[in-house]
Amino acid sequence: MSNSSPADTKMEGVSMEHNQTPPPIPSDEPKYGGFTRFEIELEFVQSLASPLYLNHLASQKYLENPAFIAYLSYLQYWQHPPYSKFLNYPGPTLKNLELLQQEKFRTDILSPDTVARLFEEGVKKSLEGPGS
């Protein structure tokens, strides 16, 4: 991939229409820089599990961009099977994707305290183990 950030890559050539359908599960779909749309969106949505990455997106003003916010809304399809089974960390990924739908959270994630709280919650969950 190029030197652009993952967020930059996602904004290029992606329609932000509300009626856009999710990409098909891996198949013979077209490639973008050698990757399918499914692979690109999977990589990006999984990065949302990181509170530091969310903070980075906010600090770069992506979370103020209406087109980017629409893209985050579109990515909600990852909450449903058969897509969610491909996520490595479905808990934090889907939780943060849901939180990003809220304007207040998109502002709050700029705060180091909010980032620290998300990290602490993640550590507690990992110590509790699966199914907790």
Automatic annotation (TrEMBL):
Matching InterPro entries: Med31_sf, Mediator_Med31
Keyword GTP-binding appears in the UniProt entry = no
Gene Ontology cellular component list: mediator complex
GO MF terms listed in the record are: transcription coregulator activity
Superkingdom to which the source organism belongs: Eukaryota
Question: Quick one: where's region Disordered?
Answer: 1-30
Q: Name one GO biological process term.
A: regulation of DNA-templated transcription
Claim: Ribosomal protein is one of the keywords in the record: no
Q: Which UniProt keywords apply?
A: Activator, Nucleus, Transcription, Transcription regulation
Tell where it localizes.
Nucleus
- Any one Pfam family here would be Med31
Q: How does it assemble?
A: Component of the Mediator complex.
| Record family assignment | Belongs to the Mediator complex subunit 31 family.
- PANTHER family per the UniProt record, alphabetical: MEDIATOR OF RNA POLYMERASE II TRANSCRIPTION SUBUNIT 31
As for what it does, the entry says:
Component of the Mediator complex, a coactivator involved in the regulated transcription of nearly all RNA polymerase II-dependent genes. Mediator functions as a bridge to convey information from gene-specific regulatory proteins to the basal RNA polymerase II transcription machinery. Mediator is recruited to promoters by direct interactions with regulatory proteins and serves as a scaffold for the assembly of a functional preinitiation complex with RNA polymerase II and the general transcription factors.
Put simply, this protein is called Mediator of RNA polymerase II transcription subunit 31
Please name the source species. Cadophora malorum
